[in-house]
Amino acid sequence: MIQPLPHPLDEHLAGLLSRLDAGHADARNLQALVKYVSARTRDGVIAAPLADAPVTDWESLHSSPVIGQEGEYKPLILSATHAWLYRYWLYEERLARCIKEKIPPIPPFSKGGIESVEGEVSDLQQQAVELAKDSRFLIISGGPGTGKTTTVTRILAHLIEAGTNPARILLAAPTGKAAMRMQEAIRETRQRLALPEEVSSRIPDQASTLHRLLGYIPNRVGFRHHADNPLPADVVIVDEASMIDISLMTHLFEAVPPDARLILLGDKDQLASVETGSIFRDLCSGDALAGNRVVLQTSYRFVAEDGIGQLAQAIRRADEGHLLAVLDSPAYSDVTLDESPAGLDTDWLRNGWRDYVAAVSGGGREAVFRAFNALRILTPLRKGRLGVESLNPWVDGVMQRLLPVHDGAQKPWYAGRPVMVTQNDYRQNLFNGDIGIALPDENGALRIWFPAGEAGQYRAIAPIRLPAHETAWAMTIHKSQGSEFSRVLLILPEGEDLPLLGRELLYTAVTRAKQGLHILATRATLGRALRQVTPPASCLQERLQADKTPGQA
Ligand SMILES: Nc1ncnc2c1ncn2[C@@H]1O[C@H](COP(=O)(O)OP(=O)(O)OP(=O)(O)O)[C@@H](O)[C@H]1O
């Protein structure tokens, strides 16, 4: 049995529901159930399996006025197998209903003459293009470099050739950074593919954040676009869909017009959203959506002698032997393992950020941002000796000695200090996860610069106006989602925080690195991470397979 950790939120909810229950149920069992469901929800689980609940007497719970069956309006919902907080049960139910409406095929659009002039394409990529023709809902999952952008650009070309108005094709991603990457990737791909100019030039290349697409209203849960005011779109394409939590996914589905196509791109093996619910992974398993999904398998970016690609493959397949063989083999020089506890070395920082130090000393902003991505330290933890909260001050100390001194910089600021925004600030258009770098402006005043809209464009924010933020030399693996770095220094601590470290976390960390990966961990830690997988977060599969959505009359 999993014993929930005592957390003030769980305690508070348990106390509240106990008072509302007013003695109908056995208090100890009710509190144990509420704390368990609340704790699992905080962990990102939407439907908490009853099999793991620390409840000894279920009988008395059924008489509680705070517990209801599916379809009832009660704080806690119980089925024969799972328990939900009402809000999440409702999201799951609404989302399942939307998805079901999008499963039946629509008449395919007519086939144009593009095929013959395109370059190489795998069978699975072609299958995705074919599916897109008569599907209102399509999932394309694949690891880095498997051709998701190539495939979706081809789909866009077909749609446009068949008469879809490009202005009614909307592109979005969960974060500003991911949206920017999406538009850059589509621009590059449409140039690379040998498409007729009249089609290629009309492929849209503007992507927004999902919040902006849906019409965020400050301080409200809902959005401007919803079922009664749907998006002005015939096609909606969303990248990095593994980062979308259940609430945002439900709002997205509800805002897409019934006849419009929705295409989700992502990597099912990556970590789920930081918020509640690994919805994308749940949608990528089971049979219900088998006809609406393509999982691309081959990475065209990694070559056979590329250790990072081999490691990613070993992790996906949970092949510990292969994982360790790759790390041990001198043939894969791009990946190294250091098992010594004193492995963290300032030389790594000095070498890894050499170009960064040079760029801050005299390069342009673009060069600074590019050089900053040469190295990143990733760890699963926030707290503890090897968590970001301890690593960042240590790196701060090393880097401040290397970076140029800037007169007038007030602590903790210094030229070259990278920060990550940790709270959305809609007014300033800054979002959780955005990275900025402190650099002097034309007048010599230190400002925090953020990439803005187009590649190569930056905007400055005064330090005092910055929303909550933290130094970003080291970041958690969760926060690194959607970013890639030339080299990654991955630190996997031992010890009591290990439950955090699972296969998806390891896979996400490894696939952030493009050219080099240095891992500080023991083999035992790596093996344990490989064996630990996150179970489904929701009962979406069951709902999608059921003839009727539970809770409906
Ligand atoms: N079928 C194919 N045959 C050969 N090369 C391919 C094929 N499909 C894609 N590629 C190449 O692989 C590279 C990666 O493709 P693409 O950018 O579409 O992948 P992706 O899945 O979108 O990557 P990421 O997740 O990193 O954004 C590109 O250089 C592309 O030209």
TrEMBL record:
UniProt-recorded Gene Ontology molecular function terms: 5'-3' DNA helicase activity; ATP binding; ATP hydrolysis activity; DNA binding; exodeoxyribonuclease V activity; single-stranded DNA helicase activity
Residue ranges occupied by any AAA+ ATPase domain in the UniProt entry: 134-276
Alphabetically ordered keywords of this record: ATP-binding, DNA damage, DNA repair, DNA-binding, Exonuclease, Helicase, Hydrolase, Isomerase, Nuclease, Nucleotide-binding
Residues annotated to bind ATP: G142, G143, P144, G145, T146, G147, K148, T149
InterPro entries tied to this protein: AAA+_ATPase, Coronavir_polyprotein_1ab, P-loop_NTPase, RecD, UvrD-like_helicase_C
Domain of life: Bacteria
GO terms, biological process: double-strand break repair via homologous recombination
EC number: 5.6.2.3
GO cellular component, one term: exodeoxyribonuclease V complex
Catalytic activity: ATP + H2O = ADP + phosphate + H(+)
The protein's enzyme class: isomerase
Cross-referenced NCBIfam families: recD
Other remarks in the entry: In the RecBCD complex, RecB has a slow 3'-5' helicase, an exonuclease activity and loads RecA onto ssDNA, RecD has a fast 5'-3' helicase activity, while RecC stimulates the ATPase and processivity of the RecB helicase and contributes to recognition of the Chi site.
Subunit field text: Heterotrimer of RecB, RecC and RecD. All subunits contribute to DNA-binding.
Family: Belongs to the RecD family.
Job description of the protein: A helicase/nuclease that prepares dsDNA breaks (DSB) for recombinational DNA repair. Binds to DSBs and unwinds DNA via a highly rapid and processive ATP-dependent bidirectional helicase activity. Unwinds dsDNA until it encounters a Chi (crossover hotspot instigator) sequence from the 3' direction. Cuts ssDNA a few nucleotides 3' to the Chi site. The properties and activities of the enzyme are changed at Chi. The Chi-altered holoenzyme produces a long 3'-ssDNA overhang and facilitates RecA-binding to the ssDNA for homologous DNA recombination and repair.
Protein name: RecBCD enzyme subunit RecD
